[in-house]
Amino acid sequence: MTTIRPLPAYLVQRYQGWKATTYADNQAWFRRLANEGQRPRAMVIACCDSRVHVTSIFGAEQGEFFIHRNIANLVPPYAPDGDYHGTSAAVEYAVTALKVAHLVVVGHSQCGGVQGCLDMCQGRAPELEKKTSFVGRWMDILRPAIDKIADLPAERQAAALEREAVLISIENLMTFPFIRDAVDRHELTLHGLWMDIGEGELEAWDPDHGRFAAI
Amino acid sequence: MTTIRPLPAYLVQRYQGWKATTYADNQAWFRRLANEGQRPRAMVIACCDSRVHVTSIFGAEQGEFFIHRNIANLVPPYAPDGDYHGTSAAVEYAVTALKVAHLVVVGHSQCGGVQGCLDMCQGRAPELEKKTSFVGRWMDILRPAIDKIADLPAERQAAALEREAVLISIENLMTFPFIRDAVDRHELTLHGLWMDIGEGELEAWDPDHGRFAAI
Amino acid sequence: MTTIRPLPAYLVQRYQGWKATTYADNQAWFRRLANEGQRPRAMVIACCDSRVHVTSIFGAEQGEFFIHRNIANLVPPYAPDGDYHGTSAAVEYAVTALKVAHLVVVGHSQCGGVQGCLDMCQGRAPELEKKTSFVGRWMDILRPAIDKIADLPAERQAAALEREAVLISIENLMTFPFIRDAVDRHELTLHGLWMDIGEGELEAWDPDHGRFAAI
Amino acid sequence: MTTIRPLPAYLVQRYQGWKATTYADNQAWFRRLANEGQRPRAMVIACCDSRVHVTSIFGAEQGEFFIHRNIANLVPPYAPDGDYHGTSAAVEYAVTALKVAHLVVVGHSQCGGVQGCLDMCQGRAPELEKKTSFVGRWMDILRPAIDKIADLPAERQAAALEREAVLISIENLMTFPFIRDAVDRHELTLHGLWMDIGEGELEAWDPDHGRFAAI
């Protein structure tokens, strides 16, 4: 693997700072986590976006959150066809092996993936329609929701579709038998959030009123 | 979506603490990131494991790292077949749209996914062989590496396979045309790491000596 | 310009080492920074002193900090009189053009400029009182603070005046209309620090208690 | 000073990493530097730009370089008029008090200050002509050099003017009596550099051939 390069010095330095502080201060806990295994209370499904780190927003300590991050925080429908399904594997492991108590889907404002989906569905991004576009095909998961935001003014569609991405992911989660079972047995609760990056506002889906509302 | 429940109070409280401190102290920066978009320097592919948060290890600030997390930090081979490929979509977006300068794959000790792969390949986990096992099928990505660790003493096989998971992911990354092109044009460098959770040691693949070595 | 001499070999060697390592490892990022421009999150105003490199203390990577360094980290009051004002120009560029989110003034122990000011104000450095002394005239910025430390024991006066240099600079910063506006609009926050060189201790001004306190 | 805010957490974290590593590893040297004072070998005059840290390029260790950074690495002519002259004070302190052996002026590509000067002189930036523009008045230092680049193709003018900024600063340095004396006594040498950010190339003024040439 001569392709691999040494780690850039700034990442070495960051790591060394972490080792000498966070690790040194919590060595006993890290060793217990290593020896006894993880026991996270919640799984979070969030976007890869560099501006939304749920580890920061929820003050994630070691061992607390099992975190899957993908483009636009999407979950595809249940499809046990033998292919690679990274998101489904993460969900399966969290619910059936780790038995997390909460599963939280976190969307966010200014999501590049959602904007790409909107552009694609409205004919402005033909390159995303190609079979070879991994982003385009991945965003197909969100395509069924496009009709729900079609009547909104153009400037509000992206933010609305970002929230639909959270809802459709939770709908898809409920197509997984092991999720539905865990929810029915009250062993798992599902939660939907949307974060406004610029304002720092977190909205949660309010099932009583059927809308997202600021926390 | 009556399935969705309100956010547990402990997460509300964590968020409110973040809003009153991290957000309040950095409001101007968050607004700029929202208005001007992200420009992360690196993409990190790491495991969902709750004990290994690269955001902590590398002191990730808002806007710095585009992070994909899946089971066992795996990247499947290039396969533009029109299906959902979350990992491939994340990599495509990071390299072609965001033009990250570094792509870092981070493996770790005590990886449940890798242990499952080992158990499966050695006949101890028949349930993972089923077509309906998302974890089993996802870990098939690592299966080609199983021969490389077969001759090691049993107690060293898991840690060796964890490192192979990093290497096979980077090999698979190089099967993506846009990755190979970016590497060839010196616009992207690839890096492979492995973290020992209990000891806090970070190893990097050393291309000169062909092995992982402590930083 | 026959006055100019070739670069000393030790600096050539240092540069060549940097080129072969830091630059080589981060070429893609340097090119992006060159093509797309800088977007620093913070401006730092620090002393020229060779013992206090904020680039080291804050692990400054390329693109992160806009740094002005002058004698005793001083900012003069707002005075748009058409003369050369290097510090005011740096602050104006950082706040109005680059729109930094934070402006941090960093003082330090054993500051030669502050000691000179103390000596001058207490009659021990008549050469600094001369109109032709650039250092003396520059340190006049700090002169209004001398009364605040006059009652302290002699051996504590210099360290106290170093901290006053930070405070008076921030007071002066607030006389610039564009700074006051940015602070009022929550687009900019001001911060005051003092570093003990020998002990490596960093103190920050605590607005709640009205004093510098160790971080 | 209720205007001052606590230091953002990410800077606290960066500092703590430095304290636990760089400081801890070099405590004895920091204490000697604190007790015995600095003895830098060279003064560097560089730009505030966040992409050009001479501390990185020259691997600046504690105590080695006395560093002044301002917009466009400019030095105004000698003018002992009793006003605040931050750059002149820094130069005076370095040469007469610290007796540095080398004085290095470092310019760079994509310099926002130089571009502003070019725009101003060519009528494209009337706001910089105002008496109240600190950046405009500061860039007046470079105005005498504008004729030297006027005949070049437009796309080459900025880079040429960046190099002229280095030369005019060194010319101005030679108008300071204490500099000329130190140079004449062979106690000080002057050096002019220009860094290409994207390519990592460092050019030095070659007095034999009267041009900048790659090192």
TrEMBL record, chains A, B, C, D:
It is an enzyme of class 4 (lyase). Keywords: Lyase, Zinc. The keyword Nucleotidyltransferase does not apply. The keyword Chloroplast does not apply. It catalyses: hydrogencarbonate + H(+) = CO2 + H2O. Its EC number is 4.2.1.1. InterPro entries: Beta_CA_cladeB, Carbonic_anhydrase, Carbonic_anhydrase_CS. Pfam families: Pro_CA (PF00484). Reversible hydration of carbon dioxide. Belongs to the beta-class carbonic anhydrase family. This is Carbonic anhydrase. It comes from Thalassococcus arenae.
